[in-house]
Write a structure and sequence with these properties.
This protein has 153 residues and is mainly alpha-helical. The chain has eight helices and no strands. The protein has one domain: Serine Threonine Protein Phosphatase 5, Tetratricopeptide repeat (Alpha Horseshoe), CATH 1.25.40. The chain is 71% helix and 0% strand. Pfam families: TPR_6 (PF13174). It comes from Acetoanaerobium sticklandii (strain ATCC 12662 / DSM 519 / JCM 1433 / CCUG 9281 / NCIMB 10654 / HF) (Clostridium sticklandii).
Length: 153
């Protein structure tokens, strides 16, 4: 009986790994999920960045989807403490951040913190206010209130 359980567990594990890393990438969500898998399971942010950069080059993705890839790349660079590289990608999406509504995500504060840590405090404050204004669309943006400690020092 235990042998069957081990075999079943092995098959399940192989299937999960295959789906996480080897299936064809078709949608923007597929690319985001794969990048997240590289980051979470292997701590390989560089591989996740390369994957997002490949996605940006695909003509079938919309401007908004490509913006989401730049956002993810910027967040990954921020986590790697490569602030200038993060800023390069955040600069590309500032207009989107200012104008468009999108769902709150945990790491969105990286945009504000990147500009703040690079000494661009006025820009950081401006972006902070743009993001807080999105509370009307998604109340979870109020989770950014902890940034008050940084922004108003």
């Amino acid at each position: 009986m235990m042998t069957i359980i081990y075999i079943f567990s092995g098959i399940l594990l192989v299937r999960v790994i295959y789906r996480a890393f080897f299936t064809e990438l078709k949608t923007a969500t597929d690319y985001h999920q794969r990048a997240m898998n590289y980051e979470i399971y292997f701590q390989n942010r560089s591989k996740a960045i390369k994957l997002m950069e490949q996605a940006i080059e695909k003509p079938e993705f919309t401007r908004t989807e490509k913006g989401s890839f730049d956002l993810k790349i910027g967040i990954l660079y921020y986590k790697m403490k490569k602030l200038n590289k993060a800023k390069e990608h955040f600069d590309k999406i500032l207009d989107f951040v200012r104008k468009d509504n999108f769902k709150y995500m945990k790491d969105i504060s990286a945009i504000v913190l990147t500009y703040y840590e690079l000494g661009e405090k006025d820009t950081a404050r401006k972006i902070y206010h743009w993001l807080r204004a999105k509370e009307k669309f998604d109340p979870d943006f109020d989770k950014l209130d902890y940034l008050d400690l940084y922004i108003w020092k």
